[in-house]
Design goal:
This protein is α/β, with parallel strands linked by helices. It has 13 helices and nine strands. Strands 1-2-3-5-4-6-7-8-9 form a nine-stranded mixed β-sheet, sandwiched between helices. The protein is globular, with a radius of gyration of 18 Å.
C-alpha cells in the first residue's frame, strides 16, 4: 500500500510526491518513504548506502530525468525518512526489500539507477529475476564497506558494529562520527571534489538526517561491512559478466584508488558501457548534470 504524505521541498530536496510503502520484515512493519516525480516509463533511483544515505541525494538526477521519465527515489529501511528500527541489519533485509518494493510499487520492467553500495543488490536481484529490469545504470559502484576497505578484518569490524549498537558508548561514538565538522571532513575527503559546494546549509541538511531516533543501527552495519552483498571482487565481476540486461557504469575520475581499481575492472568487461566523468564517490549528487547527460540517452531508449 502507499499513501501521500505532505511535502515541504527545499532546493536540496526532490520536490516530488512523497509516499510511504508499508513493508513487513520478520513480522514487523517497516515504514518506507519514497518520492515520485515526472511521468512516463519508470526509473528507480537508489541512493548510496552511507551514514547520511537519503533519497534527496538523487534530487538533481530526478529533476533532470522527470520531463522524460517517472522517477522513484527511495529511502532504504534504516535510512532517511524510513523506519529506523533496531534490526541487526544484514544483506538479506535489503535484498528482500528491493524485490518486494519493485514488485509492489513500480511498474515493470523498470530501469534503475543505483549509486555506490546499492549496486551489488541490484545486480543480485537482476541475476535472480532479470524480468524486473529493463536497463541498469551503476554510478561509482562499490561492494565493500569503509572499514573492510581500510583493511580491518570482518570480525573486528563486526565487533565495532556491535559496540555502536550499545546504549551509551554506542550513542557517543555515533554522535562523534556525525558531528557537522566530521561530516564536512568526510565529504571533502572522498565524497565531493569541489569543497565549495559543502555549504553550512548542505552540511546541516545531512546532519539532521543523522539525528533521527534509531539512526545509528543501519549506518553502523554499512560502515563495518555488514551490508556487503558480496565479499570479493570476483563475485562482483561475476554478477556483472553474467548480466544480459543493458548495463552502463559511471566512474568518477577522482575516486579513491582502491575503489577506482574496482570500478575499472568492471568497466573492462565486455557487456559494460562505461563512462568516466568528474567526481568521486558522491558524483551522483555533486555532478547531476554531467551524469544526466551520460545516462539520459541510455535510459530514454527503453
Amino acid at each position: 500500500m502507499s499513501t501521500d504524505l505532505l511535502s515541504a521541498p527545499t532546493e536540496l530536496e526532490i520536490g516530488g510526491n512523497i509516499q510511504e510503502y508499508i513493508w513487513n520484515w520478520e513480522n514487523q512493519q517497516v515504514r518506507v518513504v519514497y518520492e515520485t516525480l515526472g511521468n512516463g516509463s519508470p526509473v528507480l533511483l537508489l541512493p548510496a548506502f552511507s551514514t547520511v544515505s537519503m533519497r534527496s541525494e538523487m534530487a538533481g538526477i530526478a529533476k533532470l530525468l522527470s520531463p522524460y521519465l517517472q522517477t522513484f527515489a527511495v529511502d532504504f529501511p534504516g535510512f532517511g525518512d524510513s523506519s529506523r528500527l533496531p534490526f541487526d541489519y544484514q544483506p538479506a533485509i535489503y535484498q528482500q526489500f528491493l524485490e518486494d518494493f519493485i514488485t509492489s510499487v513500480c511498474n515493470q520492467p523498470i530501469a534503475v539507477v543505483a549509486a555506490g553500495h546499492s549496486s551489488a543488490y541490484v545486480l543480485k536481484l537482476a541475476q535472480k529475476r532479470p524480468n524486473l529490469f529493463s536497463r541498469i545504470v551503476l554510478i561509482a559502484p562499490t561492494w565493500r564497506g569503509p572499514l573492510p576497505t581500510m583493511g580491518l578484518s570482518r570480525d573486528t569490524a563486526t565487533s565495532g558494529k556491535n559496540l555502536i549498537r550499545t546504549p551509551i558508548i554506542g550513542q557517543l561514538l555515533y554522535k562523534l562520527n556525525t558531528l557537522p565538522s566530521f561530516l564536512s571532513w568526510m565529504y571533502s575527503r572522498h565524497v565531493y571534489v569541489n569543497t565549495s559546494k559543502l555549504t553550512p546549509d548542505f552540511i546541516q541538511h545531512k546532519w539532521r538526517n543523522t539525528q533521527k531516533p534509531g539512526a545509528r543501527y543501519a549506518p553502523a552495519a554499512f560502515v563495518t561491512g555488514n551490508l556487503d552483498a558480496v565479499h570479493s571482487q570476483s563475485q562482483f565481476l561475476e554478477l556483472v559478466s553474467g548480466l544480459a540486461i543493458p548495463l552502463m557504469v559511471i566512474i568518477g575520475e577522482s575516486s579513491p584508488p582502491k575503489s577506482r581499481a574496482e570500478m575499472d575492472a568492471v568497466a573492462a568487461l565486455h557487456n559494460v558501457i562505461d563512462v568516466k566523468l568528474p567526481g568521486t564517490l558522491g558524483m551522483h549528487e555533486e555532478y547531476p548534470h554531467e551524469v544526466f547527460a551520460a545516462i539520459a540517452p541510455f535510459l530514454r531508449a527503453i
